[in-house]
Amino acid sequence: MKSLLSVFRYIRNYPGLVVSYFTFNILSAIFGLVSLGLLSPFLMLIFKQGDAFKSVAGGGSFFAKANPVNYFKEWMYGLINQPGGSVKALLVICLVVLGAILLKNFCAYMAMYFLNPIRNRILNDMRSHMYGKVLQLPVGYFTEQRKGDIMSRLSNDLADVEGSTVSVLESVFREPITILLFFLYMVILSPQLTLFLVIFLPIAGFILGRIGRSLKKENRQVLQQFGLLFSTIEETIGGMRIIKAFNAEKRIQKKFEEENEQMFILKNRANRRRDLASPVSEALGITAVLCVLWYGGRLVLSNDPGFSLNAGDFLAYIAIFTQLIQPLKSLSNASYNIQKGAASIERIETLINETVDIKEAKNPIELQSFSNAIEFKNVGFSYGDKIILKNINLKVEKGKTIALVGSSGAGKSTLVDLVPRFIDAGTGELLIDGINIRDYSLQSVRNQMGIVTQEPVLFNDSIAHNILLAKPGASIEEVKQAARIANAAGFIEGKEMGYDTNIGERGLKLSGGERQRLTIARAVLKNPPILILDEATSSLDTESERLVQDAINNLMTNRTSIVIAHRLSTIRHADEIIVLQKGEIVERGTHESLIALNGFYKRLVDMQEVK
Fold first, then answer.
1. What structural domains and CATH numbers belong to the chain?
2. Is 0.70 surpassed by the pTM of this model?
């Protein structure tokens, strides 16, 4: 029941709704019990056993005194002895039963009225917590995890929780109350018969429990397979051009069909286990009814005054017990559904409880402005046993441009990811203005930085809103000025909707050069003192490259810049060029001094010039 405990953590945030729900549930169960309890006097009246109404409460056993219906029977005895009393008594019983049934259903509706917001709040809170966690997790987490699996947890797993665990909250909360009240009244009616049931029911519960536990394992496999399937779909949509270019449709289709077939097999297996719950619980319920009829009938026919049971109470007992079967069955099915949803809850909880490696200090310093230098002191970083950076010592003074070059996998991106604290150094320390970056608040550090990546990151929104991401409170004039500096104003104003133009998912309605200039405009609007540039022109045509490079030059004016360079011709005028190889700085200097050194940098330049 760990999955239910996870749900209860959300429920406790809404005590008013929970109290109201339980209050109306208890009232509904009480009124339902009243309507069934009056079956005994009704039958006794119909079958003209009015004398049996005498002294059933006053001088009887403890259980007779505890039965409130017996006091009603005594009152009925007085009414029956009046002229036309039997008809009056019958009318009174019918009216009381009608009132009890109306009140029971009113309270049942009110209970659901308060339960619905509880269920919807649980799902909303889970969704918000998962999404918030995704935003908190470090960038490195998303390189290790499949995006499709994360999306599956936000969609399929949450839907599974809604359809299983959350949907059975009504049964989990309501049925135990009904079962408890009905069971107590059954004890009052016949403790011997109820003791007989207490021995039988645990056997039935054990059988149902064994089936339910196996369902959790089956459903976990279904969810894992769904995450794999979701990832394949996401990769297919994202890589459609390549799939078509290499005529790989049949191979991709075959891979998908194999995964889909595995999903079919796993779901069939899980559904068969789930569907076994209803017939098994019904068969056990019918068996219990027959046992009650057999043993209860013996008590009715018994002449022993200490163990006998009158016919009216026995029929009332049967009616109450049959009404108890449905709550027990619902609770049994709820148990199966909870087991089914347990795997989804575990996957959701795993995401929510994922460790966030990038943590703020307890009392962080606010970095109000950047005034001196960024300094790497003996910085090292590793992914597991793989060393990415080793003994990096580098000082980036304010207003200087530092370029990072090196072959693929040399550690350039990892080095720049340390500056906005997307990751933290494993060894050594990174200082900003002489203070360890970990002592600053994350927000204040990132407020001082602007980032332009090689692959433009844009959102399915208007041009203006994509630029405003950097500074939400900026005016439209500031947005236009940023666009002019980024050489983007021309193509924006040439569109029919201008700055209100929707650019589509990932900005695919724009060309590569237009997308890149929008990201530069976004950085311009933020006006940060520190820039991190992952060569933004490497995948553009000549004309777009010139426009984007001009925009970058405008952006870099009077700013501290750290540039990852792929095209070495774009960083000839950098104040210092850092050459990385296998995570270490192997050369450093200006373009001219490195060319004169005739080392690794010179070989990189020669290779690009040959191309």
1. 2-352 (1.20.1560.10), 373-610 (3.40.50.300)
2. no
